[in-house]
Amino acid sequence: xxxxxxxxxxxxxxxxxxxxxxxxxxxxxxxxxxxxxxxxxxxxxxxxxxxxxxxxxxxxxxxxxxxxxxxxxxxxxxxxxxxxxxxxxxxxxxxxxxxxxxxxxxxxxxxxxxxxxxxxxxxxxxxxxxxxxxxxxxxxxxxxxxxxxxxxxxxxxxxxxxxxxxxxxxxxxxxxxxxxxxxxxxxxxxxxxxxxxxxxxxxxxxxxxxxxxxxxxxxxxxxxxxxxxxxxxxxxxxxxxxxxxxxxxxxxxxxxxxxxxxxxxxxxxxxxxxxxxxxxxxxxxxxxxxxxxxxxxxxxxxxxxxxxxxxxxxxxxxxxxxxxxxxxxxxxxxxxxxxxxxxxxxxxxxxxxxxxxxxxxxxxxxxxxxxx
Length: 372
Prior knowledge:
By secondary structure, this protein is α+β, with helices and mostly antiparallel strands.
């Protein structure tokens, strides 16, 4: 156990394990307002010589560390969201096999074709107000045939935008630039629709029903998405400011102009990054930079959400919320079986992850020039 600091604030931790040890020693007390952080040691393994050889090769750790493995349990006590970090799981030798992910997406299109690239389904389905088309005609926002909310639109681009791993920065921003005009048409048609959510599933193992890159816009009249309503019901009005402050204090936050965010201490899966932006396009520019960094470090399967706060005059509960709250969850490598959500996450409600959030925060700050 680390000794208590005699004076001054403690040095910011550089890893989750170090943070958990500092927390045990009585440091970072304000963090306990929201997060419970505990170190655990697993029940001992009985290892034969053959098992030791295999374990030390796969986990890259000495036999004693394999026998009694260190775990860090994190719980958001307000949301009752929990995650367990397996220290040795992060050392596993389990490199994905097969061609590069971008090539796999190209091959799938060649083998199966794509109605969106061919243009045979573009503009066929429309809301009562019609469809929204970009000035150059390459991007379209139109109704989703299989409705997921009171108002529901899909935003797609032409054949050059099929593969999200090959999107240019210009096309990326042009795609997101279609959201606000579509929402404006929805609001004109039905002013009672005030809660808007934009989702993006990137990669074949991210629940996207169509492989062609697209955004999904949902709107509701009486309540926001379940995550927003959960935070509103369980947390104080200044929850996001407090969470950001804690992450900044322990070295997991970043800032770039009007955008502030953090690598989550308690992620939904391998990596989760949240940030706030004053408007949709400012946040989308940050998303593009974050994705560039994550993809450079192996990400090719992810889910994104942009949660737009309603006008506080229409719903005072959102008075202290960011205008747009962004979340991206890294679902891992599409070529690795262990990277996706499993029974523990989906049915047990507890995340198992092996990516240290301090490493992720370092990528965001150093690789992208963000301030902390």
